[in-house]
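User: Can you predict the 3D structure for this chain?
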Amino acid sequence: MRVTFVQPLQGTKFGFTKILRVEPLGMECVSSALKLHDHDTHLVDLRLDTPKQLWSHLDSWRPGAVGVACGFTSDVYTSLETARFVKKALPETMVFAGGHHASLIPGDLLFAGSPFDAVVVGEGEWPTLDLIDSLEDGGEVEGIPGIMTKENLGGAFVSREIAADLDDLPLPDRELSLQYRRRYHHGFRVPSACVETTRGCPFNCNFCSIWVFYQRRARRFSTDRILADLEQVRRLDEENVFFTDDIAFLHRESYEELGEGIQRAGLELTYACETRADLVVKYGDLFKQWKDLGMHLVFLGIEAMDDEGLDAVRKRTKGGSLTNLQAIQILQDYGISPLTSLIADPGWGDEEFDRLEKTVKTLELPNPGFTVLTPLPGTELWETMKSKITTDDYAYFDVLHLVLPSKLPPERFYERIASLYQLTEVNTQLSWSALGKLAKMALRGQSFAMRRVLGAVRDMRSPKGYLQYPGSISKPDWVPPGFGSTDWVDRGRSPLAEKVAEIADTEIRVAVG
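Assistant: Here is the predicted structure, written as structure tokens:
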């Protein structure tokens, strides 16, 4: 069967969406599973293509099914409008969704009158393969584990366990995105590939849904499997790799072994990842090894600079705020750029902002980023704070806008957020160094990334920017009344989201196979 995957336009046009444009790794993984049974796949990335191009493809290729991504809460509207567009072009074609938000709140996509026919809940490789096999054979789809439809949403849905052995999954189908790959980037790194070494997270920060999606488990791919994927990237003549792990370096032995394998294979690539500060402190010498292998940047979600703030989001950083500072220093000593993330609480007044601003200046924190505490649907924070949510417009759930009552007037709150971003080291002026880099990127056809990143930083430094509507499109007028309200989300949750409290109370589980 022919299957088209569509990456919708990003739901928000503000902030981080301009700093990153990552390859659709989830759809590449699902595509590789479909090809095991000789299904044909195609990708249309609407971040880079136009609706007219999508229409032309649908009209000429006539796929039997179309999968639309819905990974972030702020992407719900663009995912719905994309599915509606597909249904206009091919009314009889099965349109299904996948991704984190779709998995946690499938009711957002399966309401009466929705253009979606099904949602793949959880890891997508095997459920989607079963779905497409059944469609090709003319069978029913309601009873397929992991496939939620309008008919089984009310209780007949059958859950599916996450893959017991990640090495059973085929390598991502990077050929799927071949026509777009030169325009995917992480910051100034162009092109940049996404590679998994693990999936999941054993911790339970209350603002995060990753551990809910993966049932508070972390599993890892074997070294040979990861090396094979890195070889794929090298064959595509790409040199930048971002490890998409929710927590990289969770297992010291596996990263030592991977590093040795990279050295033996001569994989001279540049690497970036995201991890916890306490792991950097615990395995400091390992990061020195990885610097020599090409690790240039580590994203640290430190969240807060004091123990009270860490406790508020249940970060569980061993050693508390002192560990955060130690991790930053270790990375800097080894020549790795630490990119730190801090959360601003809507309940803050000027005093708390003053304290954070002073801390950032005094410690000369490198490359700090700032987000606004946001109870995302499907998280534990949503469960405890949903009665306080001030908007049902998902465009504001981009972690840069207020969706909770603020102590300061919103205008003042955004002034303080903007002033924090004015402390960042990113230089938005066209210095000689910046001009030189821009010239090199222009020669390679990559200057678009610099324009996007610098434009995003300028936006986040402007208080007025936060007061404009952040959505790429507004809430569609054809969705039901009350859509996006706390009641609506509660009625549309999947079993994954319903198990938040149960999963949160479990012991930390890390699969080592």
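The CA atoms of residues 10 and 293 lie 33 Å apart. The two ends are 34 Å apart (CA to CA).
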